[in-house]
Amino acid sequence: MQFWDKYGNVAQLLFVKLDDALLKAMVRFWDPTYRCFKFNKVDMIPTIEEYSTLFHYDFRDPLRIY
């Protein structure tokens, strides 16, 4: 039961229909070296401020390395 609690019903992912155009775009713009998406040589990595908003956490602790 621990697997179910952690991952839920992952078997439902077998029935998700893939969007071929979206998948092709993701493969085209993915940079495996940096592990992020790049558009016109601009990486799409969230900044610390964006992570702060996403996680509802204040990352302004001056004594901590992020």
Structure description:
- With 66 residues, this protein is α+β, with helices and mostly antiparallel strands.
- The chain has one domain (17-66).
- Helices cover 36% and strands 12% of the residues.
- It is built from three helices and three strands.
- It has helices at residues 2-7, 20-29, 48-55, and strands spanning 30-31, 36-39, 42-43.
- It has a three-stranded antiparallel sheet with strand order 1-2-3.
- Strand 1 and strand 2 form a beta hairpin.
- The longest helix has 10 residues, at 20-29.
- The radius of gyration is 18 Å and the shape is flat.
- Residues 2-61 form the DUF7745 domain.
- It holds the Pfam family DUF7745.
- It comes from Gossypium armourianum.
Which structural traits does this protein have?
alpha+beta; 66 residues; 3-stranded antiparallel sheet; 3 helices; flat
Architecture blueprint of SSEs:
Blueprint: H1 2-7, H2 20-29, E1 30-31, E2 36-39, E3 42-43, H3 48-55
Overall form: flat
Order of helices and strands: HHEEEH
Strand order of the largest sheet: 1-2-3
Instruction: Note the beta-strand portion.
Output: 5-15%
Low-confidence stretches: none
Intertermini distance = 35 Å
Q: State Rg.
A: 18 Å
Helix content: 25-40%
State the helix count: 3
Q: What composes the largest sheet? A: 3 strands, antiparallel
Number of strands: 3
Arithmetic mean of pLDDT: 80
The tally of domains stands at 1
Structural class comes to alpha+beta
Organism: Gossypium armourianum
Protein name: DUF7745 domain-containing protein
Pfam families: DUF7745
